[in-house]
């Protein structure tokens, strides 16, 4: 369901981020229209994680700005950014280990997150939503167990459930299939494809097999800049893209796969 | 407020800075590099003081003032050994739990204090500075006590030694590697467990040496360590955790601020003001004077 | 909601304690009243440390503010009208300092006991958490602030009575503080405060507020990315801890008939933490009970073997964190449950197709 | 685990001891001092001195035919603990009298307990006055029995510019407030006044201020180990007893030993007692104490007061023919005895009429008496110049 509007939902404009003397991002620009699915690849150190950090407000750009739905967000604290509807799933499962699976989902599903309004117990709608997601992620039987006691795969699903419960407008996924089997990877890819349309999704990964399954436009980052954009087939044919992966046999192998 | 007084206060600033630095240098290793908050650090200073006393008792009759040269290695080795035992038995089990480490080491500090009381009595023991340190240098009207100059020199020597060890030696390279990324350092063949033990023992040993210097100008008794511990932590925090030179800069800054405040208000009011000033400073620079930018630190 | 076993145990214990004046002698009752007053502060530590993960070594600051607020009122009440408190006279102070004036009024004093420590805690927390100062830094800074406060109290003798502290009280709200009947009444008031602190805090922590605190303790960043502002929640938790410490300080001052800087110093604040750790830092009942039993044990052991006491105390600090990180409460909570079956190794748990359909 | 076991054993044996404690015929008294913590340095020996007196009395058949049973408690250098333990001694152990306390703060904390329960406390340390409880016998020096005679002596030596240095707590501040009034009244000069936090170890700024002020003499009310730091740094800065004498009110023989005699030689202290006093009662006391607690043991003014306090109490009990604290308090007024301090008498306000000595510090931490008051000095809890119109009720 591509949007009619031309204005991008996420608009990164000329962002530069430096750590000490090292420039992690150099004048980087990137637009993602509402409802689109975009994949970000690039060799290690290309700046993928720094870009996500900048979008969610963890890192402040030295110059340039990040706009979300037309609003500059690159000076907002993280929780405000999150409040605007940007949700990030980290590489490592980011569940809240001291809470039960159900409490994790309830907190994610909450709309009002202020200190005073938090005293209100979850609404029936939020409760229903949490139970639905428990059911759908197959965690109903584990609902009352602290998340710390869940198996690794269960944590991954719980977190995906949390992301879904939060119902974000922009979803940032950082290597969502790390540690998954081939079958799980395929299912996750299918899930992400369905999410696009209602949500805008930006995926980082370097598992080319997974990227292939996503079947979405790809942006290649290199040395903190956008190197190429296009669909995966075109990029594969591009010798320059192969070039930047050289010296990194594992990823090169993936790229050829 | 004449010139002599102001010059005297400037020297006071330097003296206070040297003491703060001595008290804090060991912490720069254990807290700064290993993120271990050791509330028993003050007791290593105390141990250094008592070992100075013992050195004077044993070596004094034969060596006279030369006991001091026995005291330094004795205090270093004694404190380092104690530090190693502490790391091996307690701290090792608590890595990654900084708040628990704080509590456990506080317990150890209580035990060490009480042990000192059992061994040496609750009254302090006398330590007298060698006679060649008893005079004073006079520059114009300003008196510079030799023992103060000696403590300043000692602080500089320990600082220099630590700087060399951390930045120029192979040991220091390994320490910095572990500080940057424990896993990577381990993968590169660094024995991180042994290194932790060594760094902690070294920090304790440095505190022991500092204790020798402090014994020359302050009492040696079971509770003397507690008098230094909070200020020592403040020096490390203000300087920037993980930065030895930052700690030195912080010690100088706090030393001069103290001297200035004491020069113009009452001494005990200055102490309260200093503590508030440190908290205000951290508002401005929460990561200290010389912040260390490392991912490892951020996650800590 | 069905009451939890913890709530039932708490209720039973409170009931037993309510009848203590009938079966305890005068001294044990006095002692029990005092440690119960302190246990209110322990409940605050549970919120701040056990739940929100903030180790404050400066709870004595808020405890002291509550205690001094009340003590100033009691001192003014015990001073003949028109006179200055005796220690001011002995220090050459000639006019009542401005910040003493409001404490002539009992309602204002009670208001101050409830708001001043909480407000101070809020300010301290705001200063720290808005700059994202965390972990051991918070511990060091709170300890430094407490030290600054104590140093000021000692130094500003004409205003605070210095090391001697404020003492020699006569009446409170018209009640003679030195009559034996008052001891009993004060005991019940204290017990009611403990019950209120335990019940109110437990109710509060049962709301999603408690869950967010736990979430922040376990993973502050993740909580932030879920859209919660950890600083705001930590400030709230810290204020609650400050409020409870302040109430505790005021009660303790009433029990003891004096408050002085030494009562609120670093040793006090650390001891508070270790008894909470022993009882179980995450358990309200555990930490309150830990404090009460710990203090009672201290009273007995330090009488019998004063030399051994510091060894016992030191060993407790070490053993609790090494062997019993969740305290006695954690030990008790773990035992009754049947051993858990080993968790399934990351067995493929495919996302059912419905998840995607539901989107 | 062994620690845990000994903990249990201790707790258990304590419980049993509590049951067996009420031996027939004995009368209980409390000894309440800091046996741990920062004040233990000073207070343990004071508790020992009280114990010595009790042992001596018991060896001679006790008081009114009953042996004295000591209930020893640790105030732990913590003022609320003093209050709690005092309450325990009075309400649970029902002691006839308590010997204890050192700091003013501990006394202030105990005072309401004694007034509430009608107990009797013997307090053996010099203090700042301004207090007059009917439940406390203050045997240590009042300001007019230590601080003022020291000032008089200094002025008599021709020292006109006086620097006041003290720890930042009530005794030094109040003593100095009184001294300042008298310095002004005697037309002498106050050349400076400084306070260092209790336990402070850094005196650079203070010494620099002293240097700028150029006083003739320093009156020192520093407490405990701050003295060690001060004298070390004072000497390092080139001062000595010859160039700038110091008169101390809190340095007795024991502190002198800890400071190190080399640092203190030639400096002065003012007290009601020195170990070197030649009277027979003192020789006997010193010999008995050193026999029990070690040949080299230093003996100080508060220890002598604590030792004598027990004998004062015994005399008052025998005079009253009762252990009742109220009766003892009434009977004690006017009692007079030859003590290690010399001849003393209990004044109606519950303090001692006693002599004042100024001593010169010498070898082995001992003081040689260089001046003494003409006869005995009556205790004045409220200084007439500093606090006009205040008297004991």
What's this model, at a glance?
The complex is a heterotetramer of chains A (257), B (300), C (359) and D (393). Chain A has 257 residues and is α/β, with parallel strands linked by helices.
List the main descriptive attributes of the protein structure presented here.
heterotetramer, B: 300 residues, mainly alpha, ABC transporter involved in vitamin B12 uptake, BtuC, disordered C terminus, D: alpha/beta, Rossmann fold, 13 helices, disordered N terminus
Structure description:
The complex is a heterotetramer of chains A (257), B (300), C (359) and D (393). By secondary structure, chain A is α/β, with parallel strands linked by helices. Chain A has helices at 48-55, 78-83, 101-109, 124-136, 152-166, 182-195, 208-214, 232-237, 239-245, 249-256, and strands spanning 10-19, 22-32, 37-41, 63-68, 71-72, 86-89, 170-174, 200-204, 218-222, 225-230. The longest helix of chain A has 15 residues, at 152-166. With 300 residues, chain B is an all-alpha fold. Chain B has a single domain, classed as ABC transporter involved in vitamin B12 uptake, BtuC, CATH 1.10.3470. In chain B, a hairpin with a 2-residue loop joins strand 1 and strand 2. The longest helix of chain B is centred in the N-terminal third of the chain and has 31 residues, at 3-33. Chain B is globular, with a radius of gyration of 19 Å. Chain C has a domain at 33-265. Chain C contains 17 helices and four strands. Chain D has 393 residues and is an alpha/beta fold. Chain D folds into two domains: 7-142 and 278-353, Response regulator (Rossmann fold); 144-273 and 357-372, Rossmann fold (3-Layer(aba) Sandwich). In chain D, 42% of the residues lie in helices and 18% in strands. Chain D has helices at residues 2-20, 40-59, 79-92, 104-117, 147-156, 170-185, 204-213, 226-236, 253-259, 261-264, 280-293, 301-320, 325-332, and strands spanning 27-33, 68-74, 98-100, 121-123, 136-138, 161-167, 189-196, 217-221, 246-248, 268-271, 336-339, 342-346, 352-353, 357-361, 367-372. In chain D, the strands form three sheets. In chain D, strands 7-6-8-9-10-14-15 form a seven-stranded mixed sheet, sandwiched between helices. Residues 1-23 of chain D have low confidence and may be disordered. The interface between B and D is large, with 47 and 37 residues.
């Amino acid at each position: 369901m591509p949007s009619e509007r031309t204005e991008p939902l996420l608009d990164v404009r000329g962002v530069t981020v430096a750590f000490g003397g090292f420039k992690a991002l150099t004048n980087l620009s990137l637009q993602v229209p509402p409802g689109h699915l975009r994949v970000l690849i690039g060799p290690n150190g290309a700046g993928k994680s720094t870009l996500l950090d900048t979008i969610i407000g963890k890192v402040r750009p030295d110059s340039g700005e990040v706009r979300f739905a037309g609003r500059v967000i690159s000076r907002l604290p993280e929780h405000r950014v999150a409040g605007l509807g940007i949700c990030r799933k980290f590489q490592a499962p980011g569940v809240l280990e001291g809470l039960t699976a159900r409490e994790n989902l309830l907190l994610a599903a909450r709309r009002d997150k202020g200190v005073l309004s938090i005293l209100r117990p979850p609404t029936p709608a939020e409760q229903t939503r949490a139970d639905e997601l428990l059911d759908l992620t197959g965690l109903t039987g584990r609902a009352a167990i602290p998340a710390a006691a869940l198996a690794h795969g269960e944590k991954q699903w719980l977190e995906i459930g949390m992301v879904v419960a939060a119902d974000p407008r922009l979803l940032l996924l950082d290597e969502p299939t790390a540690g998954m089997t081939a079958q799980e990877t395929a299912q996750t890819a299918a899930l992400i494809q369905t999410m696009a349309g209602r949500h805008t999704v930006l995926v980082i990964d370097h598992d080319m097999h997974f990227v292939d399954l996503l079947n979405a436009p790809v942006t290649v980052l290199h040395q903190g800049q956008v190197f190429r954009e296009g669909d995966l087939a075109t990029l594969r044919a591009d010798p320059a893209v192969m070039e930047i992966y050289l010296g990194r046999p594992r990823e090169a192998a993936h790229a050829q796969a | 407020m004449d010139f002599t007084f102001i010059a005297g206060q400037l020297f006071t600033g330097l003296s206070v800075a040297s003491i703060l630095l001595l008290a804090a240098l060991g912490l720069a290793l254990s807290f700064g590099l290993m993120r271990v908050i050791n509330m028993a650090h003050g007791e290593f200073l105390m141990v250094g003081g008592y070992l100075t006393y013992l050195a004077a008792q044993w070596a004094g009759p034969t060596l006279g003032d030369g006991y001091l040269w026995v005291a330094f290695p004795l205090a270093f080795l004694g404190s380092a050994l104690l530090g190693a035992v502490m790391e091996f038995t307690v701290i090792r089990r608590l890595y990654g739990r900084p708040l628990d480490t704080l509590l456990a080491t506080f317990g150890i500090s209580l035990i060490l204090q009480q042990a000192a009381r059992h061994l040496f009595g609750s009254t302090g023991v006398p330590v007298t500075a060698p006679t060649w340190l008893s005079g004073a240098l006079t520059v114009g009207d300003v008196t510079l006590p030799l023992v103060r100059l000696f403590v300043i020199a000692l602080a500089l020597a320990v600082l220099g030694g630590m700087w060399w060890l951390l930045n120029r030696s192979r040991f220091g390279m390994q320490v910095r590697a572990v500080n940057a990324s424990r896993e990577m350092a381990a993968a590169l063949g660094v024995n991180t467990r042994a290194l932790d033990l060594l760094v902690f023992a070294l920090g304790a040993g440095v505190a022991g040496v500092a204790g020798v210097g402090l014994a020359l100008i302050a009492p040696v008794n079971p509770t003397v360590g507690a008098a230094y511990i909070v200020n020592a932590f403040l020096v490390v925090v203000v300087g920037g955790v993980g930065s030895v030179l930052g700690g030195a800069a912080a010690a100088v800054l706090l030393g001069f601020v103290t001297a200035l405040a004491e020069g113009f208000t009452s001494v005990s009011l200055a102490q309260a003001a200093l503590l508030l000033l440190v908290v205000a400073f951290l508002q401005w620079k929460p990561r200290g004077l010389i912040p260390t930018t490392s991912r490892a630190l951020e996650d800590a | 909601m069905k009451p939890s076993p913890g709530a039932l145990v708490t209720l039973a214990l409170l009931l037993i304690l309510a009848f203590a004046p009938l079966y305890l002698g005068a001294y044990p009752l006095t002692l029990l009243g005092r440690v119960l007053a302190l246990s209110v502060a322990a409940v605050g530590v549970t919120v701040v440390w056990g739940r929100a993960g903030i180790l404050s070594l400066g709870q004595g600051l808020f405890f002291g503010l509550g205690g001094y607020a009340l003590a100033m009122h009691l001192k003014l009440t015990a001073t003949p009208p028109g006179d200055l408190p005796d220690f001011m006279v002995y220090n050459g102070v000639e006019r009542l300092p401005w910040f003493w004036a409001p404490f002539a009024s009992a309602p204002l004093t009670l208001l101050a006991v409830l708001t001043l420590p909480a407000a101070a805690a809020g300010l301290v927390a705001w200063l720290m958490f808005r700059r994202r100062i965390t972990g051991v830094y918070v511990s060091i800074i709170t300890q430094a602030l407490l030290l600054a406060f104590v140093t000021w109290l000692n130094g500003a003798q004409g205003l605070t009575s210095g090391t001697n502290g404020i003492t020699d009280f006569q009446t409170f709200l018209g009640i003679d503080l030195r009559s034996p009947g008052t001891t009993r009444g004060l005991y019940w008031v204290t017990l009611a405060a403990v019950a209120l602190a335990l019940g109110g805090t437990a109710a509060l922590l049962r709301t999603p507020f408690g869950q967010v605190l736990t979430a922040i303790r376990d993973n502050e960043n993740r909580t932030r990315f879920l859209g919660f502002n950890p600083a705001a929640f930590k400030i709230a938790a810290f204020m609650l801890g400050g409020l409870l410490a302040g109430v505790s300080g005021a009660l303790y001052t009433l029990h003891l008939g004096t408050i002085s800087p030494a009562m609120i110093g670093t040793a006090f604040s650390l001891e508070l933490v270790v008894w909470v750790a022993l009882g179980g830092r995450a358990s309200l009942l555990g930490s309150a009970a830990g404090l009460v039993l710990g203090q009672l044990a201290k009273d007995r052991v330090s009488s019998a073997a004063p030399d051994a006491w510091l060894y016992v105390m030191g060993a407790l600090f070490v053993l609790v964190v090494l062997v019993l990180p969740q305290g006695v409460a954690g030990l008790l909570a773990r035992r009754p449950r049947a051993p858990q079956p080993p968790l399934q190794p990351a067995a493929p748990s495919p996302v059912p197709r419905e998840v995607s359909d539901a989107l | 685990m062994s620690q845990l076991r000994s903990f249990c054993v201790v707790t258990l044996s304590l419980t049993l001891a509590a049951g067996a404690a009420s031996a027939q015929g004995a009368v209980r008294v409390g000894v309440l001092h800091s046996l741990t913590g920062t004040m233990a340095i000073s207070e343990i020996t004071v508790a020992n001195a009280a114990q010595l007196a009790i042992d001596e009395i018991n060896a001679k058949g006790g008081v009114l035919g009953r042996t004295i049973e000591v209930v020893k408690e640790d105030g732990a250098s913590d003022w609320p603990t003093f209050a709690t333990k005092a309450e325990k001694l009075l309400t649970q152990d029902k002691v006839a009298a308590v010997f204890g306390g050192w700091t003013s703060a501990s006394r202030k904390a105990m005072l309401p307990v004694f007034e509430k329960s009608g107990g009797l406390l013997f307090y053996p340390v010099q203090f700042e006055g301004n207090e007059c409880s009917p439940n406390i016998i203050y045997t240590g020096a009042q300001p007019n029995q230590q601080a003022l005679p020291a000032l008089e002596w200094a002025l008599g030596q021709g020292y006109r510019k006086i620097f006041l240095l003290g720890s930042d707590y009530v005794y030094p501040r109040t003593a100095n407030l009184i001294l300042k009034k008298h310095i002004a009244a005697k037309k002498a000069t106050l050349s400076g006044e400084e306070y260092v936090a209790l336990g402070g170890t850094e005196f650079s700024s203070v010494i620099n201020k002293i240097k700028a002020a150029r006083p003739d003499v320093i009156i020192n009310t520093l407490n405990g180990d701050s003295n060690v730091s001060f004298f070390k740094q004072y000497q390092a800065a080139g001062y000595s007893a010859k160039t700038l004498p110091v008169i101390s009110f809190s340095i007795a023989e024991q502190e002198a030993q800890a400071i190190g005699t080399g640092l203190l030689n030639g400096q002065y202290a003012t007290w009601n007692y020195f170990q070197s006093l030649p009277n027979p009662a003192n020789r006997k006391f010193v010999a008995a104490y050193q026999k029990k607690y070690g040949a080299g043991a230093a003996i100080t003014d508060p220890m002598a007061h604590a030792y004598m306090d027990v004998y004062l109490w015994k005399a008052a009990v025998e005079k009253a023919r009762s252990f009742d604290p109220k009766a003892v308090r009434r009977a004690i007024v006017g009692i007079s005895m030859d003590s290690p301090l010399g001849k003393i008498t209990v004044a109606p306000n519950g303090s001692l009429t006693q002599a004042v000595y100024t001593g010169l510090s010498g070898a082995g931490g001992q003081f040689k008496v260089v001046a003494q008051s003409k006869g005995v000095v009556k205790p004045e809890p409220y200084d007439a110049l500093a606090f006009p119109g205040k008297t004991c009720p």
